[in-house]
Amino acid sequence: MYTYSSPRLVTVRPEMDRLAQYAPGESLEAFSERTGIPIEDIIKLNSNESSYEPAPTVLQALSNFRNYNNYPDANSTALRNSLADYTGVDGRHIVVHHGSAELINLLWHLFLSVGDNVLCCPPTFSLYTSVTTFCGAHVLEVPRKPGYELDIDAILDALTPETKLIVLTSPNNPTGNSICEQDILTLLDTGRIVIVDEAYVEFADNPHGFAYLVPQYENLIVMRTFSKWAGLAGLRIGYALTPEWIQAYMRRAQCPFEVNVAGHIGAIETLKALDYTLDNVRRITQERERLYALLDSYSFLHPVPSQGNFILMRVDEDQVSVREIRAAVEAHGILLRYFSQPEMRDFIRVTVGKPEHTDKIDSALHNLLP
Ligand SMILES: *Cc1c(COP(=O)(O)O)cnc(C)c1O
User: Which cofactors are named for this entry (predicted)?
Assistant: First the structure.
């Protein structure tokens, strides 16, 4: 056996060394292996997926389809037409992509050069930071106020000539609150590209979000996904509502056939079965209120009101530690989201599931009472 040794002349870009890998919620497989609990007994409430399956007609259409041997329609014409009906925004403003995580990757690479920055308001979705680093750019963090509203004055003060993007999440993950129109209009006035991530908008009191503003502005992008409300996280399908000039660049930068055929079918059929899917959304928002009341009834938990399909709670560690709660719920097969950032260490996020999942959480927490 020879081992060859060739000179290593090329290294990755220098900023790759400060790139922290995005840590997604633990998978069913990994949790099962770690705990010995069989996959079918696990209650997965750590990644804000839907606990409800897609409509039966969606599953039927996916299995009836016979043209998987052909590439998808690269223009996504049928899906963009359905999305135009659903959002009320003309198809010229719609770009379909494989998940909004990938939309973030695409948009960030369109706008950021090395040395630029992105303004974001933690606590929020941490993928924005990893992708920013991947672009050789930096994140400007303007923390939210107590109660988690945006600190608009601090945002305006923080902007630099290198600030290209302002990213806002509405409802915000993990705090669950929505943004008001006036704040968006103020930020649009800065001339920066304002990106509103509406991954959870269907669960909000105003489920239409800010789509209606897109045709009126040259610097507003709204991102949406079928992962959360529509139960299609596994098919990876998302879309952006953008000004026409930006959508032209996005289409150019996309690889051909990026959104697969199954994703197209899943999304189109979901929009045809809208009543079915929105019934499930309603079940989830009702359950959210019951889960909130339940969590609030435990003296060691301080849940935050939410417009999403999840609830953030602060743990009063003088009474019970996050570690003890984690052990108790994991013994019941329940997977929740924990945080490694220092300012979020005493928080836990739980996805709203079915009523029986709430009951199971109650049983697990009950064991912790003194
Ligand atoms: C879950 C989530 C996403 C990712 O959605 P995909 O379409 O599944 O990639 C994007 N933004 C936020 C805020 C999320 O919580």
Answer: pyridoxal 5'-phosphate
